[in-house]
Structures are given as structure tokens and as C-alpha cells.
Specification:
The chain has about 70 residues and is α+β, with helices and mostly antiparallel strands. It is about 25% helix and about 25% strand. The mean pLDDT is about 90. Pfam families: Ribosomal_L30.
Amino acid sequence: MAKKPAAAATITVEQIGSPIRREAKQRQTLIGLKLNKLHRTSTLEDTPAVRGMIEKVKHLVRVVDGQ
């Protein structure tokens, strides 16, 4: 029998800043994080790629929960 993959760690982020008057790359990063309006939250897999995206827009998002 095949083993079930371990449950991946998740991270929850909330958008706290507006993308208005921001660079296009930052707006696209927010969309990639499944955020595009203030106070929306998104639960994502905790991977190095997601951590890098959060770092690029750290002034616009807040990490709510990192399990």
C-alpha cells in the first residue's frame, strides 16, 4: 500500500494595504497570493515560493497564522 502524503503546512495571510499606486509586479504578486481586496484572507501551502511572494509584498500583507 502506498503511504499517504503528510499534511502540508499552511500559512494564512491577510491583505492590509491597497495595491493602488503600486508597481505592477506587486499587484500581480497579490493576485498570485489570491488576494486583491483589503482585509481578504487566503490560506496557502507554506512553501519557499509562497514565502518569497509574501516577502515581496510584506508591506501590504500580514501573516495571520502559520501552522
